[in-house]
Amino acid sequence: xxxxxxxxxxxxxxxxxxxxxxxxxxxxxxxxxxxxxxxxxxxxxxxxxxxxxxxxxxxxxxxxxxxxxxxxxxxxxxxxxxxxxxxxxxxxxxxxxxxxxxxxxxxxxxxxxxxxxxxxxxxxxxxxxxxxxxxxxxxxxxxxxxxxxxxxxxxxxxxxxxxxxxxxxxxxxxxxxxxxxxxxxxxxxxxxxxxxxxxxxxxxxxxxxxxxxxxxxxxxxxxxxxxxxxxxxxxx
Length: 236
What we know:
By secondary structure, this protein is an alpha+beta fold. The relative contact order is 0.07. It is flat, with a radius of gyration of 26 Å. 45% of the residues lie in helices and 15% in strands. The longest helix is centred in the first third of the chain and has 25 residues, at 2-26. Helix 1 (2-26) runs antiparallel to helix 2 (36-54), helix 1 packs parallel to helix 3 (60-82) and helix 3 crosses helix 4. The termini are far apart.
């Protein structure tokens, strides 16, 4: 029994090492940057690694399979980097879902996206009114790209010949009713200052504060705890 446990530990370490080396070889990419093939291949390699760690009798097969899948991913990545046709075949090509006020129903069907999901993705990206969009494109990695109409483009400081002040990170001073003492100290504040600021804003007890942040100009932004829910159902 003890020998089997030691064997399982050794195989687990081996699978972790091989998985780490294959990851380094394949390169680091975020989930949103992966193609569907890369995503499925990554899951498969992880499953094989788990089998390698638990297969005490025949570990050669899963180890070989891991290496084959990893090398296949590297070779296909090099192929798609050199060939446009191979890139389109393996990674897919962009699909226009909306353009000049026309929603392309057939392309939505090809993308396996219904209208509710399409509207949800628009809202998540900050577009609550579809009529303000010039085009929506489904990229090869499954993400949607949005092109707003010219009159809906946000105005930049450069457009106004204005140079804004540089901004920095805001400090989280209260999180879910708890004072973040470490952040409070590094922001140059203390509990006395924070308590006074919260009281002035109508929060005598920090337990009633869900979130409080402070910027470089000592501007305190406070969000109260609210256990209610928004009852209006107008989005679907």
